Amino acid sequence: MMNIIFLGPPGAGKGTQSQIVSQRLSIPQISTGDMLRAAVSQKTPTGLKAKAYMDAGELVPDEIIIDLVRERVDEDDCRNGFILDGFPRTVAQARALGQLRPIHAVINLDVPDEVLVKRLSGRRVCPVCGAPYHVDRLKGATTCQVDGTPLVQRADDRAETVLSRLKVYHEKTAPLVAYYEEQGLLRSIGGGLSLEEISEEILKTLEAMA
Ligand code: AMP
Questions:
Q1: Looking at the predicted structure, is the pLDDT value of residue 2 above 80?
Q2: Which residues' Cβ are closer than 6 Å to ligand 1?
Q3: What is the pTM of this model?
C-alpha cells in the first residue's frame, strides 16, 4: 500500500508519468487538474467557482481543492494507495493532506523552465480521457490513441498563460520540495532522460521506498 505524490512544475510530465505508474502499480491516479476540468465542463458549483482561476493560470483556493481531494481519497479504489498528480500545490494543501492520509513517497520531476515552455505550448490532450500528447511525437496525428477523440489544446497551455503558471509554481509550489525533503520523502528525478527512462527510474525508486 503506497500513497504517492508527483511533484513538479506544469509540463514536467506528472500526468504522463503518473498514468504509467498508476497502470503498473494498479492504484488510481488522482489529477486535481482533470477533476477541475471535468467540473468546469459539467458546470458544477465547484467548476463555476474554479473556472476564472484556471483560465488565468492561477491556483484555485485551497478550501475548494482540499474538499475535492478529501472526498476522492475516501473512495474505495484508494484503499491500496493512490497517486496524486497536481496536488498538493501549496504548503497549506500539504498540511491538510498530512491530516487526511499518510504519504509514503514524493517523486519530484525536475525540469528547467526553458524545456517546460516548449513542452506546454506543444502539448495536446484528449478532452475525454485526459491522455497527454506533444505535437513533436504525434507525427501529424490529431486524435487520441486510446479512444479516437480529436485532441485539443488546453486554454491554459497558450503562451501567455504558461508564463504565469510557471511563476505561480515557483512562488507557491516549489517550497514543497524543501517541505517533503525535510520529511525524508522526496526523490528528485529528471534531466536528460527519455520518457521511458524516467518511468523506469520512478518505478525503481518507489520499489526501494516500499
Ligand atoms: P493541472 O492540470 O494540474 O496543470 O491544473 C490545471 C489548473 O487547475 C491549475 O493551473 C490550477 O488553476 C488548477 N489546479 C489544479 N490542481 C490544483 C491545486 N492542487 N491547487 C490549486 N489549483 C489547482
A1: yes
A2: 10, 32-33, 36, 53-54, 57-60, 65, 86-89, 93, 156, 165
A3: 0.91
